[in-house]
Amino acid sequence: SRLLEGRTAVVTGGASGIGLAVAEEFVANGADVVITDLGRAELDAAVAAIGPKCSGIAADVSKLADMEAAYAEVIARHGRLDAVVANAGIGAHAPLHRITEEEFDRTFAVNVKGVLFTVQPALPLLRPGGSIVVIGSTASIRPPAGMSLYGASKAAVRNCVRGWIQDIKGSGVRINVLSPGAVDTESLRSALAMAQGADAVPAAVRTMGEGNPTGRIADPREMGTAAVFLCSDAAGFITGVELFVDGGMAQV
Ligand code: NAD
Predict the structure, then answer these.
(1) What is the ipTM for the molecules in this complex?
(2) For residue 18, how far is its CA from the centre of ligand 1 (angstroms)?
(3) Beta bridge partners of 243
(4) Where exactly are the structural domains of the chain?
(5) Would the CB of 15 count as within 6 Å of ligand 1?
(6) Cβ 50 under 6 angstroms from ligand 1
(7) Catalytic residue among 26, 71, 117, 150
(8) What's in the keyword line of the UniProt record (predicted)?
């Protein structure tokens, strides 16, 4: 059955990777989806791939005015807002001795301030029964080497969410963190290609999978189906949790 029939959802950073897969699963479950991202061309390509229940709006999550304008446009298009997936995020490899102030500011501007500016202007618009999903990472508890800044940003939003469930008490809106481990996206594959060369990518993906209790890394669609669940009435009493959708990686 279609869990999100008649609902309207916003997915930030929806032009690629996990966000695109989330948008596809939402549409498959009956939702109208508006994806936001930085580039018009990338948005247009994603909307064409997802189909007529999806449209795009160019907006930078680190700019509050962009997000306010995006939500106003969502209401103009659909007249309602039921779900928000704060997915846009960045993660650069920067070991301690090479962390720069610029890298610090950029990581927190997108991954923390960007989540705040995705959530804050949505709150007055979300209907009771509405749901917010913030895409975290297993790096929030286990940052891999060289990913301390990224892990810190994901831990920061996880703790924001713990506080926010109390701040939004009585709104009927739930908010949770969905934390992937390694997900087989183009961005993961291109990062591996840059580090180890293009020919080494399939073996590197296999090796990452072997380190996981399930023996593989995730398909992006598996983030989509988990986000559908968290935004559906089936998850009606789940709020404030960090749900690891990581094949058990964070538990071993
Ligand atoms: P991705 O780079 O494919 O997608 C992220 C999208 O966000 C891109 O389309 C990008 O243009 C957009 N974006 C970046 N900065 C933005 C901004 N300021 N405003 C609006 N959009 C912006 O990456 P992905 O792997 O799909 O990652 C999506 C989320 O999942 C991120 O929050 C990431 O930290 C998280 N995550 C990914 C993995 C993984 O293995 N791929 C694992 C754990 C967590």
Answers:
(1) 0.99
(2) 7
(3) 178
(4) 8-182+220-244, 184-217
(5) yes
(6) no
(7) 150
(8) Oxidoreductase
C-alpha distance from residue 12 to each of 34, 88, 139, 242 (Å): 8, 5, 20, 19
Q: For residue 179, which of 109, 96, 250 has the smallest C-alpha distance?
A: 250
53-60's contacts with Cβ under 8 Å and 24+ in sequence apart are 53/27, 54/23, 54/27, 56/14, 56/15, 59/12, 60/114
88 lines ligand 1 (CB under 6 A): yes
Residue 220 phi/psi, 5-degree rounding, is -55, -30
Q: Which of 10, 11, 18, 61 to mutate to test the pocket of ligand 1 (most atoms within 8 A of CB)?
A: 18
Whether 71 is a known active-site residue: answer no
Sequence-separated (6 or more) residues with CB below 8 Å from residue 230: 131, 133, 174, 176, 178, 238, 243
pTM above 0.90, yes or no: yes
Nearest to 67 by CA among 135, 122, 18, 22: 122
Q: Return the CATH architecture of domain 8-182+220-244.
A: 3-Layer(aba) Sandwich (3.40)
CB of 38 shorter than 6 A to ligand 1:
yes
Q: Name residue 191's amino acid.
A: A
